[in-house]
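Case study 2.
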Amino acid sequence: MDDGYHMLDNNYEDVTALFEQTSQDMEPGALMFDKDFSLHDAMAAFEIGEPRFDSGLALLDDSRPPFDPLVPLLPEEVCWMIDRAFSCEMAWHSGYTLSQTVFSFLYVHALPDIDPDTISRSHHHDLDRTRPVELVSVVLRASVLGLLKCCDLAWRELVKGNVYDCEDWQSDKCDVPMSEAYPVNRILGILDEACVWVRNSSRVRSTWRTALSHRLVLRKTLVELFSALLSKDYFRFRPLVEMARVMLQHVRASPPPPPRPCSPAPRAFDPQFPRVLVSAIPLHPIQLPEQSKVWDTLAGLLDSLEQLSILIEIPDLSTWDVVGTLRIWRPQPNQSLAYVRSAFQSAVYENGIILNKYLQKHAVDCFFMEALQIPYDSFISSFQTRWVGLDSLPLRHIERTITELLVGRIKSHWYNPPRRRRYCMKSLFDWHELYATLTDVQKHLAPVSGTDVVARLRPVVLMRRLETISDIVLSGFQLSLYSVNERPLAYWYLARVLEQHLTCLDEIIEVLPSKQRIYSMPRFEFQFRARYLTALQALSLALFAVTVKMMGSSWERLRLNFLRRYKWALMHEYEDIDIPPIGHPNFLSFTTSCSAILQDKEFSPAEQAELAERLLTGSTTAPGRMAGPWTPDRMEFVSKMAEVCRDLRRLPKSMDELQTWDVEQLVWDPDVQPWFPVMRNRS
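Prediction:
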C-alpha cells in the first residue's frame, strides 16, 4: 500500500501489516483459503479497478475533443461517415462484437440529440449555408436508423440458432437499442424523406446530392432485402439485389475525400468507446477494414443472397447438396458470413417446412427419386405387402431417420468448417444404424421375383455414409489438421474408402431400370461421380506412396496418433449393433500397406497422377446433371483439380526413384488446393 494512501472513512482499518506478517510463514506460490472467501472472490477483487478487465474503469483518451452530435458537417463529410458506418456493419458481420464496430459510431448513441423535432431553432438558422443542419438531423439520422435496422434484422436471423453465438457471430447488444421499436415501413419512410430533402436541397452541390442519394437508396434497399429474408419473401430478392448492386457501383465510383485534420467527422468514430459499455468480456479496440474491402464484403453478401433466391426455386435436394459441397470445396471470398450461412440453413429447413414450401416427406421423396428413380410410395407399398415380421413395421423410424440425416447433411454445408467436421463424425453412427435396420428388415420380408426395393436402398445408404467419411478425411487436409506423420494414413484411408464408394456406385447404376440407366439424371450424375472419385483415388494412392517416406515416428507413436485422430470410428455404441461398420480404418492394414507399397516395383506415382488428370479432363465434358446453374462452378473446380494432377506428374516414376526423390518439393497449402500438395517452382 502506498505511503500516501489516506483512509477516507474511519470505519476502515488498515490490515496491511497483518497480511505482511502472516505471509512470512507461507511458501512462494502458496494460497490460503477460507470457506467464505474463495479464489474466485479474490480474483473478482483484482478485476475491479483493472483496466484490462473492468470496462467501467477504462482509461479513455482525454486528449480527444468532446463529441458534439450537432456540429455542422459538409456533405462530403457525411458521405465519409456513412461509408465508415458500412465498415462497422461489415466488421460485425465478419465476427467482431457490436460494441467494437457499430456501437463505436457515436451517432448511434446520439439519435435523440439529432431528432429534427427536438433540435432547437437556433440550429436551423445557421449562417453557414454549406453545412445545413439537415445533413445531420435528416440525412445522417436516416442513415444511422437504417444501419441499426439492418443490424436488428440480421440479429433476428442470426439468433435462430443455425449459427453459434461467440463462435460464428457476436450477439451481445450491450443494452444499446437497435431500432427494434421502429417498424420497417417507418424506417423506409424516414429514408425516403431524407432522399427527398437531398434531391430538393439547394444548399448541397449536385455532385454530393447524387452521392448522398446513392448511399441512402443503398441503405433503404438493404433494409428491404434483410426484411424480405426474415419474412422469407425470396421472390423479392432479385430486383432488390440488382438495385443494391447498381447503387453500390455508384457509391464505389464516387468515394469522398479523406476528412481534413480539423474535420469533426473522424471524432464520430471512437474505438475506445466500447470500453464504457456493459460487456460480458473485456474488449480491445480494432482497426476497421479498408473501404474497398468493405464494399467487396457487401458485394459478396449480395451475391450469396442472389444465389439463395435461385436455389430456393429448385426442389431437388441433390442440387442443394452439390451446391453446398462446392461451397466447401472452393469457398468464395466474402460469401461465408454467418448471416448468409444462417439464411441458407433457414431456407433448407425451419419449423417443419423444407425449402419454404414442402412438408418433411419431401426429403424422403427426394432420397428415393434422385438416387433410385423410385417413388417413395412404391417403397411403402412393397414394404407393407412383403412384411412378415412379428413386430410392427419400422417404417416411421426409417422415414424419420432419412429425413433427419438428409436435411442435417445439407444444412451442415453451411456450418463453419470445424463444426461441420464434428457433425459429420456424429452422423456416421446414425447412417450405420439405418443401414443395419435395413439389413435386418430384409430378413423379415417375403421374397419377391421382381425388383427388391429394400435391397436397392441399402447401397444408397452405405454410399451416403462412405461419402461422409470421405468428407471427414478431406476436411482434415482443408483445416490443416494432419501432421507430416499423419498424411500417409489419411491418403491411404481415403483411397480405401473411395474404393468402397465406387463399388456402391456400380451397384446403384446396375439396378437402375433399363430406360433410366441410359437416359436418367442419376445415371449421368453417378457416372460423373465415378470418374471423379476414381481420379481422387488414384491421386490419393500416389501421395500415400510418396508420403510414406516422410514418416519419422515409431509405429507405436503412429498408433497413438491413429487412436486420437480416428476416435469417431472407435465409439462403443457400434458394439451394440450386430453388423460391423463398413469403411472404418484399420491400423494393422495400414502398416501392411506401407510395407507392400515400398516393395511394389510396378507402382508408379507419376502414372497415377497422369491417370487422375485424364479422368478429370474427361469429366469436364460430362459434368453430371445435378449441379443445375452451378455446373460451370463445378467444372471450374474439376479443371483446377486437373491442373494439380498435371503438376504432380513430376512425382517419381517408380518406387525405386522415390528413394532419391526430394519429398520436400511437395507443399500443402489449403489456400491453393484444399486436399493435395503442389510442387515447388510450379511450371
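Confidence is low (pLDDT under 50) at residues 1-8, 47-58.
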